[in-house]
Amino acid sequence: MFNRDRWNEILEALTANWFRTLLTAFGVFWGIFILVILLAAGKGLENGVKQGFGDIATNTMFMWTQTASKPYKGLPKGRRYNFKIGDVPSIREQVPGLLYISPRNRLGGFRGANNVVRGLNTGAFNVYGDYPEIIRQDPINITSGRFINYGDIDDKRKVAVIGEGVRKELFEEGEEPIGEYIKIQGVNFMVIGTYSKKSNNGDGEEGQKEIFVPFTSFSQAFNYGERVGWMAITAQDGKSITNLKKDILEVVKTNHTIHPEDNRAIGNFDLYKEFNKINGLFIALKGVAYFVGTLILLSGIIGISNIMLIVVKERTKEIGIRRALGASPWAVRGQILLESIFLTIISGMTGIAISTGIIFLINKILDGSPTNEDSMFANPSVDLTVVFIALFILVTSGLLAGLIPAQVAIKTKPIDALRTE
Amino acid sequence: MIEIKDLHKSYKMGSNSLHVLKGIDFSVKEGELVSIMGSSGSGKSTLLNILGMLDEADNGSYFLDGMPIKNLNEKIAAQYRNKFLGFIFQSFNLINYKTAIDNVAMPLYYQGMKRKERLEKAIHYLSKVGLADWATHHPNELSGGQKQRVAIARALASEPKVLLADEPTGALDTKTSYEVMELIQGINDEGKTILIVTHEPDIADMTKRIVNLKDGVIIDDTVVNQVKATANV
């Protein structure tokens, strides 16, 4: 396969008519070019949309209490209830496969009144009582100091981690907030850290204006007792929270004497499901890209096949001579096949090289432009797998393109081939 | 060397078939130089093509060096052609984009011989036909006689048992024709069996035996006194 004569002959045959070879190669080049660009654009869109999820752990559900919508065991419809801190160990015990369960309480909220004071500065912020794991579920970027830890939880320390937005409102420019005290609804908390946060769907500003304090100190300071307002539950890798959700809700329903078919008592949001929906969308998009790209590629391959047929026709006599001299059918067939594979691979690789070059340029331009957090398009790229798939498609299609001409080449009897003038 | 019995061949031309060979019985011994003569349409080229395994007979038997040649598939036919037969054509049939030496080396390439050995052998046969200095020339830089001599070198390169020549001098002027015939006679004198199809009586006279074909049957098969080509040059 790799001897000099054969390659000489391939080059000879392909360079015999430069312009024609170039036009033929263009078909395949264009097909693979479109395929790669489409895939990269799909990936870019995917990256852009997924960036909207921030760094949040996607295998996560959130739940909060609502009112019971069905009477059950003598308890009336419309009853209010609260999660209890005891729900956390009972969920962990009865539902295997969970990674984190973070209960949370909250002060303030949308258009809340000013609730935090420091000296002469006041502000309205969301204040969360949280467990340390929450930082793994909804990551924030600690810019100074530290986040809450279990020491804080166990000792019920009155400490707070504040967002950059909070720091700007309560502290002077250049003032060091760590070690300072802020007063949250009349209770003093010491600032132990500051954070910044990547945006979640454009509420970047709001995301910086939050204060995290230990869950236990929150409950004590603000008289929450054992109440829990909200929970974020993440499943272990490889397990889907969507599948576990039913069990979790069942445990909570049992704990709080809620009718098993009462679907409104526990408000919940399954991030994983939403994430999977979007994932599905992108899988479909990828499918479309492959479909369209492959069809365009196909027309290129038909072009190659066509040209190879003409080449075979032109070389009928030569093939006849070769066969008279003892070329076996496979030697002839192999020659034609190799030629067509060679042509496809060369033009295909050029297509891959140029399209990745363009993607590289686009990335460069995107990187150079000011980062727009809400951009729907980021970092278009193709991975090596795609290149290998494309290469595989090329070799196969080169083979396919050569198959018919090769068959034609050996179908003619040597004597007929020799008679052709 | 060659044994054929009751060979029949017909071609389909639309609805009616053309019976070209009507029972040929013919044999050639080793070292013979035979010419097959006949007017056009007598079936001489068809006979040569069947002998050369380029075409297949409808009926009859064909033994080459004691081996039955029948129902060969293309692969084996190609192997036999390569090993046992050397072809010389009227229109030379050299490959235009290859140099003389590469043309000569071609049958050896299909034998799977290494490039270096191949080229050594090719240059040996090129010098035998007196064209060693033209090894790197392409066919379009050679005269007709030179082309035919390259073709002869190519036919000899695989060291075949039989050389088959189809009107080897048909495209050459008389002088060049005699030069080529001189070469062929020389090769025959070294013991090679050679069959020549021709319709030129003077060329036929330079062989040792003349077989006359007419309408698909042999009408005459006589051993003649060979005229040496050198005498005419």
Number of distinct beta strands of chain B: 10
The major pleated sheet of chain A works out as: 12 strands, mixed
The stretches of 5 or more residues of chain B where confidence is low (pLDDT under 50) are none
Percent of residues in β-strands of chain B: 25-35%
Record the SSE blueprint.
The complex is a heterodimer of chains A (421) and B (233).
Chain A: H1 4-15, H2 18-51, E1 60-65, E2 83-84, H3 87-94, E3 98-107, E4 116-118, E5 121-123, E6 126-130, H4 134-137, E7 141-145, H5 150-155, E8 159-163, H6 164-170, E9 181-184, E10 187-196, H7 204-207, E11 210-214, H8 215-221, E12 227-228, E13 230-235, H9 241-255, E14 266-270, H10 271-314, H11 316-324, H12 329-368, H13 384-411, H14 414-419
Chain B: E1 2-13, E2 16-28, E3 33-37, H1 44-51, E4 59-64, E5 67-68, H2 74-84, E6 85-88, H3 100-110, H4 115-128, H5 144-157, E7 162-166, H6 174-189, E8 193-197, H7 201-204, E9 209-214, E10 217-223, H8 229-232
Parallel strand pairs in B: 3-8, 3-9, 6-7, 7-8
Antiparallel strand pairs in B: 1-2, 1-4, 4-5, 9-10
Explain what the structure shows.
The complex is a heterodimer of chains A (421) and B (233). With 421 residues, chain A is α+β, with helices and mostly antiparallel strands. Chain A is 53% helix and 17% strand. In chain A, strands 1, 3, 4, 5, 6, 7, 8, 9, 10, 11, 13 and 14 form a 12-stranded mixed sheet that branches. A two-stranded antiparallel sheet of chain A has the order 2-12. Chain A is elongated, with a radius of gyration of 34 Å. Chain B has helices at residues 44-51, 74-84, 100-110, 115-128, 144-157, 174-189, 201-204, 229-232; strands at residues 2-13, 16-28, 33-37, 59-64, 67-68, 85-88, 162-166, 193-197, 209-214, 217-223. In chain B, strands 6-7-8-3-9-10 form a 6-stranded mixed sheet, sandwiched between helices. In chain B, strands 2-1-4-5 form a 4-stranded antiparallel sheet, with helices on one face. Chain B has 8 helices and 10 strands. Chain B has 233 residues and is of the alpha/beta class. In chain B, helix 3 (100-110) runs parallel beside helix 5 (144-157), helix 4 (115-128) crosses helix 5 and helix 5 (144-157) runs parallel beside helix 6. Chain A binds chain B through residues 3-5, 12, 16, 317-318, 320-331, 410, 413-415, 418, and chain B through 49, 52, 54-55, 74-75, 78-79, 81-83, 87, 89, 93-95, 97, 102, 106-107, 109-111, 115, 154, 158.
